[in-house]
User: Which sequence fits this backbone?
């Protein structure tokens, strides 16, 4: 067994090749012999560099004497089969190309010339019906050399196949490079490999549908008795709905999978892993992954009007040499809109300031603060403000992603909670429209500004404030947040407008308690409290009347007394 390190011209009737290559290789092997036979080429073992792609690393097989001949097939890192290729003539060529990754690649290849018309008894065929048996050629005597047999099994619709090898004895080696049996989940040998076996065993396999393919391949030496196999069919279970739930917040991504759904795929919680395999799920009645939005291998992609966070749950068999299952990936994406719409209400004179937050998918909030150091938020209620009082506003983003920036894009005011026809711009497209507005520089997860309180003429003292904020990737120097004030004429509205908006309301202020439609619903205690101002007004009125009468009586007496005193008269004040 052997071959030159990189490429060769081969003329042997059969030959095994053990090939070892490193990075940046491009090696060509040419097989040609002057006989009226064809070539069977088998890549029974191949190990490429991890994560390599077909574009950078592959084996290409050509049906002829050079790489200019027609392409017969290609083998890559993700090839889900044991490639067996057959030439149309007496020549065949293959090239192995590797990428620049420092890694030792290993391949085992063998070929042999044969006559296609030569048949072997009990070597392959079509097997139909709900159950059946088949054996390797010559069983229980040793199987022939250079044997390649293919059995296609097909059972009734809506069933799956259970295959058991009652007796199995092939040449043993660690990678099953020489003699092997391969089992495929389907009617083709190009993909869907669910098992490759050799040596002594009694393995079982199960298909996902009513078709299965079994291959026997042998080389030129060390033949044993082969195998005896039996297959049966069982009804497929009813479909199980993909019971998966995904919830996203500014802080976390939460994925919930039902155990029944995993079982229907042939898996359980031990077969699951995220992009970062160290992040484990919590198992209760369901399997739950809950992790920071930027953690556990989550990737982030800025898509202009939104930021998408993606993680992948991989389901794959573990703890065995063979597998009967295909790997499955569940891709979870949290698409976070860049825009969040927030609403805040303040009222002048004797009404209440109250904040109402509506959140897109990012968790944001908006509060008033006592001063421009933004250390003490206004938490108590009621909170009274005067006309022209300076109000300090902060929008906060609650997210575990440190690479986000909050930008106050637009704020409008209205005397009505539905923001009808009468509105007043405070900020528009990041530009201040009121001369009392001062916008602070964006600071990580905070957007801040201040303005002086006002009221609308000929209207109620309440003023409703609605602000639209943008959330951007702080590393993106071309984002809307980085551009600051942009005039309406130059602004691309479609890039910034919120795609989802929720309005919370109606807002009920304290003055509603004095309205007529609420008066009938007051409790007795409320009625007593409500009557106190009227009683107080009555007492004050009586007191004022009494004092007025006393003043009148005293005035009359004084007038009479003074009038009868001698020398009483008016004196003109001299000018100064």
Assistant:
């Amino acid at each position: 067994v052997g071959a030159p390190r990189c490429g060769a011209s081969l003329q042997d009737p059969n030959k095994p090749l053990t090939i070892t290559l490193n990075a940046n290789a491009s090696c060509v092997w040419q097989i040609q012999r002057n006989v009226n036979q064809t070539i069977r080429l088998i890549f029974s073992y191949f190990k490429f560099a991890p994560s390599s792609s077909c574009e950078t690393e592959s084996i290409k097989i050509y049906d002829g004497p050079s790489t200019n001949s027609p392409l017969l097939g290609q083998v890559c890192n993700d090839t889900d089969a044991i490639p067996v290729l057959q030439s149309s003539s007496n020549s065949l060529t293959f090239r192995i190309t590797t990428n620049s990754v420092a890694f030792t690649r290993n391949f085992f290849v063998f070929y042999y010339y044969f006559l296609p018309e030569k048949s072997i008894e009990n070597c392959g065929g079509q097997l139909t019906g709900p159950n059946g048996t088949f054996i390797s050629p010559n069983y229980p005597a040793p199987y022939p050399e250079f044997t390649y047999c293919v059995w296609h099994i097909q059972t009734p619709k809506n069933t799956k196949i259970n295959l058991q090898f009652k007796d199995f004895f092939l040449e043993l080696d660690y990678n099953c490079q020489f003699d092997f049996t391969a089992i495929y989940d389907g009617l083709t040998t190009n993909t869907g490999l669910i098992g490759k076996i050799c040596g002594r065993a009694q393995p079982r396999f199960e298909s996902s549908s009513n078709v299965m393919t079994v291959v026997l391949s042998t080389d030129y030496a060390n033949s044993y008795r082969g195998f005896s196999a039996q297959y049966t069919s069982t009804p497929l279970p009813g479909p199980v709905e993909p019971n998966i739930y995904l919830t996203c917040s500014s802080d976390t991504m939460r994925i919930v999978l039902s155990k029944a759904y995993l079982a229907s795929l042939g898996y359980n919680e031990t077969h699951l892993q995220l992009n970062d395999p160290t992040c484990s799920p919590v198992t209760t009645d369901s399997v739950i992954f809950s992790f920071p939005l930027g953690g556990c291998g989550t990737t982030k992609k800025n898509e202009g009007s939104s930021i998408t966070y993606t993680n992948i749950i991989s389901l794959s068999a573990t703890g065995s040499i063979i597998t009967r299952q295909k790997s499955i990936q569940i891709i979870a994406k949290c698409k976070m809109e860049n825009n969040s719409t927030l609403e805040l209400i303040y009222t002048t004179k004797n009404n209440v300031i109250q904040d109402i937050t509506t959140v897109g998918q990012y968790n944001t909030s908006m509060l008033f603060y006592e001063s421009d150091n933004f250390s003490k938020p206004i938490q108590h209620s009621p909170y009274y403000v005067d006309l022209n009082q300076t109000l300090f506003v902060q929008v906060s983003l609650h997210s575990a992603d440190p690479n986000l920036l909050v930008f106050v894009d637009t704020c409008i005011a209205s005397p009505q909670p539905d923001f009808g026809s009468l509105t007043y711009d405070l900020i528009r497209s990041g530009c201040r429209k009121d001369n009392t507005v001062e916008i602070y520089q964006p600071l990580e997860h905070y957007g801040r500004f201040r303005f002086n309180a006002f009221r609308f003429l000929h209207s109620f003292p309440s003023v409703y404030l609605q602000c639209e904020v943008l959330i951007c990737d702080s590393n993106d120097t071309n984002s809307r947040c980085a551009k600051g004030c942009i005039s309406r004429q130059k602004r691309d509205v479609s890039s910034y407008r919120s795609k989802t908006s929720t309005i919370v309301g109606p807002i009920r202020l304290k003055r509603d308690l004095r309205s007529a439609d609420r008066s009938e619903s007051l409790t007795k205690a409320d009625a007593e409290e409500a009557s106190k101002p009227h009683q107080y007004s009555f007492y004050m009125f009586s007191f004022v009347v009494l004092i007025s009468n006393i003043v009148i009586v005293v005035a009359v007496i004084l007038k009479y007394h003074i009038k009868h005193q001698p020398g009483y008269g008016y004196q003109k004040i001299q000018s100064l």
Notes: Helices lie at 259-264, 480-483, 493-496, 516-519, 524-563. The domain at 244-360 is CATH 2.60.40.3210 (Immunoglobulin-like). Confidence is low (pLDDT under 50) at residues 320-324, 345-360, 491-532, 562-576.
